[in-house]
Design brief:
Rossmann fold, four-stranded parallel sheet, three-stranded mixed sheet, 7 strands, globular
Length: 186
């Protein structure tokens, strides 16, 4: 597994593989109940989120793994050398999920980690939300090349959803009613 931050790092086939596997797991959870036996996930929250926390912790448990949660303020990341702390965490777990305030911290973790890092949300991207959205779109339409209208401010969720929709062959149209702006990406 590689880091998950930008979908530019993945091929269309890799993304389809991830989404189709997620669909299989969703349809037949019992068959995958032990696929992550013995695997450990470290979740680190600089930004809070009940949904992200519960999704990762419950997901790991339902697949047989274990999740270890830590708040940024309670960690040594606030006082120690980041590179050393990141490497230490990587020696103890199989994967890191970080929810950070700034994309620079996501990049720092990806640079120094010896295990895959999942961006659980930062100020630039929210790839896990976009994957969940794309899975829902696939389940409803039966194909990946969907056209999406996004209404709202451009933010991290917008960036990731737009990126995956376009990568998968769809069109992404956005409208911001507050600022009366719109645009399109293909």
């Amino acid at each position: 597994m590689k880091h998950l931050n930008s979908f530019a790092d993945y091929t269309v086939d890799e993304l389809k593989g991830i989404l189709l596997l997620a669909e299989k797991i969703k349809k037949n959870q019992d068959a995958y109940a032990h696929i992550l036996d013995g695997k450990k996930l470290y979740t680190l929250f600089e930004k809070t989120s009940n949904r992200t926390y519960l999704s990762f912790v419950i997901g790991m448990e339902e697949l047989g793994g274990k999740a270890y949660n830590q708040l940024w303020k309670d960690s040594n990341f606030t006082i120690g050398d980041l590179m050393s702390e990141i490497k230490y965490v990587g020696r103890n777990v199989d994967c890191i999920m970080g929810r950070f305030k700034k994309a620079e911290m996501t990049h720092c973790f990806m640079r120094y980690s010896t295990v895959p890092v999942i961006n659980g949300c930062d100020n630039t991207f929210h790839p896990t939300q976009a994957l969940a959205d794309m899975l829902t779109l696939y389940e409803k339409t039966g194909h990946f090349d969907v056209n999406v209208l996004y209404i709202g401010a451009k933010n991290n969720s917008y960036n990731s959803l737009c990126e995956i929709v376009v990568k998968m062959g769809g069109e992404h149209v956005w409208f911001d009613p507050v600022q009366s702006r719109y645009g399109c990406r293909r």
